[in-house]
Amino acid sequence: MSGYDIKKRVKGALSTVTNASYGTLYPTLHRLLDEGAVEVQEVPQTGRPAKKLYQITKKGRQELREWLKQPAAADQIRREFLLKLYLAKNLPMQDLLTLVAIRRGETEALLRTLYAEQDDTSNSDPQQALVMDYALSLCKAEMDWLRQFEDRIQRV
Q1: What is the pLDDT of residues 75-127, one digit of tens each?
Q2: Are 79 and 130 within one domain?
Q3: Among 53, 70, 122, 139, which residue carries the largest CB count within 10 Å?
Q4: Structural domain containing residue 118
């Protein structure tokens, strides 16, 4: 696909998970080119610059598989986790379940931390208590979703 087509695809399919601005897309494509993870083919166009079409290489597919198996980076956990789930259609079932189990463990740990912090701040600032309630609600909802996902994926 061209960079323009990649941006459209990301915006259409993954807009809730990530944003692909041209400012991040093209530097990423150039880095992947340098690493040999993608290759580019230039297609001549009449009266316009050549169109660059990017395609993942065998090395790139292997790197993608390896990345999909890794836990999400701490600063981008939820976004990266959802992105991995979206891209993991060819991941073996056990690897997918492991990815979800790791995320469940991370969410359980965060839930325990939030409960401890809630106990420490329960009599303090009411606004802080509301923020804590919100964070707890998100974690509980994610735990429910992860259980549903595991149940559903194991039935497939």
Answers
A1: 566 778 888 888 887 788 888 888 889 889 988 988 888 888 777 656 667 77
A2: yes
A3: 139
A4: 58-156
